[in-house]
Protein 1
Amino acid sequence: MKTGKLPENVLKRSVLRQIHTGSETVQNGAGIGRDCAILAFSGKEGIAASMQEGLVAAQGEAFTDPAASEPALTIGTLIQRCANNLAAGGARPSAAMVTLLLPERAQEAEVKALMAEAAEKCRELYMEILGGQTRTTKGADAVLAVVTGFGRMRGADPADAVPKSGDSKEPPFGDGSRKGAVRGKRASLPGQDVVLSKWIGLEGTALLAKGNRARLLKRYPAYLVEEAEGFGRYLSIVPEAEIAADFGIGAMHDASEGGILGALWELAEGAGVGLSIDMRKLPLRQETVEVCECCGVNPYELLAGGCLIMTAQDGPGLAAALEREGIPAALVGKVTEGNDRILINGDEIRYMDRPKRDGVYGFWESRDLLPRE
């Protein structure tokens, strides 16, 4: 199988169907479009957990090792992804456990730098590092990190937090205003608006710009390339998730690998609903357009970390609430009855495909085929 997420049909057939959860403690477990697992204990307390993994390198070293099987991330990115998943699930990120699997050639200075970066990112997010594992193994040809994030549920009832498949008959979480929210299981319901925060393709744009800097500078001005490289500053969706939860929403989903189209599909698939999305309204930075054109990547299928998908009865009101806090937001479509996921682009209407492999992997594998500097 190719690098990246498992295809959805393989995930359903060979992973999800093997998982059987019967415990009442598990409020939300494995499934399509679920950002984190939620455990509820005595009373109304609940804890959420999310895991992220990947090859990692020190800051600024992504895309620099031609022998690596995939582009390296930073360990801070993995921690941020966990925090984003937790926030999208309705939890406040609180702690993380970090596992590092090291190749035999790894040096102590590299381990120290990675853990210093992890500690700094956790301080930034008000999270604690609880522990983890660090070990050398013959099975690793690069540093592999596994981060597990934990968060405390924000609501009075953990069941309020995230949508589950089949929840479409339940009332929405909130009444479209910050006051008088009606508690109930969150769900994406037909008729709700679909709202996106910030822009799509942010995380992938930053990775591609850093790994293709020399080539980009031959085509574009330095200020554009530097701005694209700096998109990592937008990757946290924690602020908008908290605003959305207070406002009153149907559901949230953290866009990431597979791009915005993959994330929209996952949201709809997990909730068992359809979508009608206006492609022209999907917020896209010009820097992303230029970088993707140079690298031969579809921006709609590119790592979309930093963008939060939200559904709400009052989409314009939610977008306005986010804008008041300085967070760009766009109303891009509607949740619909049935299972049809429709993309509208002017007069063209087509069905959304199942999530595809993220474009960043295709670029990585074809980089030797691109013109040399």
Protein 2
Amino acid sequence: MTTNSSFDVAIVGGGVIGLAVALHLLEGGRSVVVLERAEVGSGASHGNCGTITPSHALPLAQPGMIGKALQQMFQKDAPFYVRPSLDPALLGFMLQFARRCSQPRMRLAAKPRADLLNLSRQLLEQLIQRRGLDCEFSASGLLTVFRDEQAFAEARHLEHDLPAIGVPIEAWTPAQVLAREPALKAGVVAGHWYPSDAHLRPDRLVAALATRVRESGGVIREQSPVQSFVAPRAGVLAPVCADGPVNASQTVLCGGAWSPLIAKSLQLRLPIQPGKGYSITYSRPKLCPSLPLVLRERSVCVTSWASGFRLGSTMEFSGYDNTLNRLRLDALVRAARDYLIEPEGAERIEEWTGWRPMMPDDLPLIGPSSRRPGLWFATGHGMLGVSMAVATGHLLSELMLQRSPMIDMSAFAPRRLGL
């Protein structure tokens, strides 16, 4: 691509969100360039567990969460860990997060999250079939497993809260759980079954989306970090890479956890913190779970595909620290050993860590900037980027093409934060 090429839209970020936005805009007749700082899908889109989870509609900011975080602050392998820090951005984030840890605010965020997740689950399967995306998708459902009676009692509210916002859930007895998933050890006390959930291999989804973007006429520029922005004409912003400005009429910021750093050059303060997650990918064990699982007490996700087996999750707020913390990786394995007959495959293929773009209200930014003409946002999806990607691409393209979106977008509007 030459630097004087002209595009309707420049998309900053080549993860699952950016590629989904690109594909939908291309299908709407727009010309698109994707600017990726490294390789497509090299961030959180690569190493997550690939679960598609309407079941996760309730936000992370829930009653009791701050107390739990304080209790675990000095437990470095805790599922939810905040590294002690005087960083003003992190302190501000945690203060905003704490203000939302109430029952009314949790419910206020849950409904739009459920609407977005349910729509994305529907549109994802349609897109996979329509565009032939090879990503090991399975409409499998998801099973949350409990080994502690008190933990199950504390989670029983989900049997009311989730159906009230359109997410089905079933309570299963130990016999039902073990009959459906023989890879689990005895000692299970209950399960929650989510029939509308699904799973796929996330790195293969990203690769398939990138292929379809290119086949549809989109341009993907890897190793092209955006360094700044200029307004060469009519006040419309244009991203600037190492080889100069990119000539585009509109720009979409899809930078994931990097979004607040990119936005600084626009004098915009995005309240996004990098939430660090970990995963380990193995070859398939002989007795491999047939369902995606959440090991509830340890907050660990287990996903199996024909091509492998993955343990993942945890939430760590430690800034942009990209070191692989052996203690936290080992915690994934210890958790799996408590629940699974064969917790590991014969070959450990990959150890991974990456950052999710966490918002204090757990609602992504989707829509136009109220302060910068020509700038749009599709970022801040937290732990649910893969789950929310296709709906985000569809809805943002509807807004940009001046069509009526399929759901109410007010909860996701950047103007709610003065952006």
